[in-house]
Amino acid sequence: MDFKFGEKEERLRVEIRAFARAELSGHSVISGLEEEGRDEDWEFTMQISRKLSQKGWLTMAWPKEYGGQGASPFEQLVYIDEASYQGIPGTTMGVSGIGWVGQSLMLFGSEEQRKKYIPSIAAGEPDGVWCTAYSEPNAGSDFANIQTKAIKTGDEYILNGQKIWTSCAHRARWCWIAVRTDPGAQKKQHGISLLILDMKSPGITIKPIINFAGVHIFNELFFDNVKVPVTNLVGTENRGWYHLMQSLAFERHSIAPQFGGMSRKILEAIVKYTREIRYNGTTLAKDPVVRHKLAERALELETLKMFSYEITWKMSKGEIPIYEAARNKAYCDLVMQRLATTGSEIIGAYSQVDMWSKWAKVMGNVTRLYMMFPGISIAGGTDEVQKNIVGQFKLGLPRAY
Amino acid sequence: MDFDFNEQQNMLKTMARDFLVNECPKARVRELETDQKGYDPEMWAKMVELGWLGLIFPEQYNGTGADFLDLVVLMEEMGRNITPGPFFSTVAMCSIPILKFGTAAQKAKYLTPIADGKSIWSLALTEKSGRFEAADITAHAEFDGKNYILNGEKWFVPYAHIADHLLVLCRTEKAGSPESGLTLFVVKAAGRGVKMELIPTIAGDGQCRVRFKNVKAARSDTIGKKGDGWKVISYMAQRATVLKCAEVAGACQAVLEMTQAYAKDRTQFDKPIGSFMAIQHKLVDMLTDVEGLQYLVHYAAWMLSTGAKADLYISQAKAKANDVYQRVCVDGIKIHGAIGFTMDHDIGCYFRRVKSSEFMLGDTDLHLEKIAAGIGL
Question: Considering only residues 106 to 135 of chain B, which have any Cβ-Cβ distance to chain A shorter than 8 Å?
Answer without folding.
Answer: none
